[in-house]
Amino acid sequence: MTPDREKRICDFLDRHGLSVQRCALIDQALTHCSYAFEHAGHPDNERLEFLGDAVLGCMAAEFLFSTHPDLPEGQLSRMRSFLVCGKELWRRACELGMDDLLLLGKGEEETGGRHRVSNVGSALEALVGALYLENPNSPELKKFVLERIFKPGLNTLQQQMHPDHKTRLQEMSQSRGMGNPTYHRMGEEGPAHERCFHVEVRIKGVSWGKGKGARVKTAENHAAKVACEAMLKEKK
Question: What number of other Cβ atoms are within 10 A of residue 191's Cβ?
Answer without folding.
Answer: 7
